[in-house]
Amino acid sequence: MIPVSEALDHLFTLARPLEIEEVPLREAGGRVLARPVAARRDQPPFAASAMDGYGVAEAAPGLCFTVIGEAAAGRAFPGSIGPGEAVRIFTGAPVPDGVKTVVIQEDVARDGDVITITDRLGDGDNIRPFGNDFRAGMTMDAPRLLGPQDIALLASMNIARVPVTRRPQVALISTGDELVMPGEEPGPDQIIASNTFGLYALMQELGAMPRLLPIARDNEASLRTVFGMVGDADLVVTIGGASVGDHDLVAPVAQSMGLERAFHKVAMRPGKPLMSGRFGNAMMVGLPGNPVSAMVCGHVFLAPVIRAMLGLGARPAPRETRPLAAPVPQNGPREHYMRGKLTPEGVMVFDRQDSALLSVLGAADVLAVRPPHDPARALGEPIDVLRL
Ligand SMILES: Nc1nc2c(c(=O)[nH]1)N[C@H]1C(S)=C(S)[C@@H](COP(=O)(O)OP(=O)(O)OC[C@H]3O[C@@H](n4cnc5c(N)ncnc54)[C@H](O)[C@@H]3O)O[C@H]1N2
Ligand code: MOO
């Protein structure tokens, strides 16, 4: 058994960064910007009014002006203004030559073409200077996971096609004679494949492209058939059949088909029988079948692998430190990822930690991480957590 950190190092060595592809801007949300892009224009490209009102050269309560024209967003006033003159102006309009300040319409009394500034006149010129937001050539740095705000900024920079890292293709293989798909009618000795779908959702959330392969049965021929269907997957994930029983055939069959195993078994709980290696052009990760084990390994190992493939860096899942809301007993020899919940008082670690209990995992929002042989800890002591 190797420590979690060593297993992660192996995985990062196996994970190959993916190529860059260009996508239309509207499809770039949630993707990873693969190289820096530069603004193709200044924003705003002219000094622009920030308010609806009147543009004048100088404002003071009591001053009067004659309105000589109008400037609207998308329709500039062609001329310039002189002393005693004003331009009716709207938010987003280019500020005409000669205008030094925009008086908001609430601070003006209008009579025909004549305006008088009232005593309420506020501060500020209400003008957004040319290039105030950004100048042409300003870069958005990469790598960067593009959120909605980034997409708005890229649009404003006039970037219509965005260089992003290709999405990793992930083939998910459930194994076991006992499994049927959700919606099917299970026999008396069968259960529903569950973590398969949890991992599918996790992969989608991380920006990968998961593909569900048919369930492989617990025999060599079936496993070989399904392994033959991985196509050009970047990552092959098997679920179950990873342990030491007579029906745990994933490692021997994968090895007979060319798996170069990097490790098998990690000193963690749950997740001990984890294995990984290179499998043709792909990397393979064999997850334990116990539903919570598979999901925990998804968060602890698969998520960092997908981020590394996307070019977001080879780093473990982020942790934060929180106080314990109740004492926890001494830990055993394996790093323990305990299901728990964040409360206003701190982390409440659940009593029931069996790795088959998806209802407990579903109630959890953190995994509290206990190092091997961690002594018993009292209420209020700090503990590392990994958010689910
Ligand atoms: N003698 C030993 N027995 C076991 C050991 C051990 O060290 N010595 N390790 C235990 C640990 S820890 C784990 S974890 C499990 C892992 O076993 P496998 O990876 O071989 O998984 P299976 O035996 O195929 O399944 C275990 C359990 O999970 C259910 N399962 C499997 N796949 C799915 C799925 N896609 N969706 C829902 N549930 C699934 C399966 O029915 C079993 O109940 O081994 C221990 N045994
Ligand atoms: O490692 Mo198993 O994953 O403890 O249930």
UniProtKB/TrEMBL annotation:
Pathway: Cofactor biosynthesis; molybdopterin biosynthesis. Its EC number is 2.10.1.1. It catalyses: adenylyl-molybdopterin + molybdate = Mo-molybdopterin + AMP + H(+). InterPro entries: MoaB/Mog-like_dom_sf, MoaB/Mog_dom, MoeA-like, MoeA_C_domain_IV, MoeA_C_domain_IV_sf, MoeA_linker/N, MoeA_linker/N_sf. Its cofactor is Mg(2+). It holds the Pfam family MoCF_biosynth. The keyword Thylakoid does not apply. Keywords: Magnesium, Metal-binding, Molybdenum, Molybdenum cofactor biosynthesis, Transferase. Catalyzes the insertion of molybdate into adenylated molybdopterin with the concomitant release of AMP. Belongs to the MoeA family. This is Molybdopterin molybdenumtransferase. It comes from Salipiger mangrovisoli.
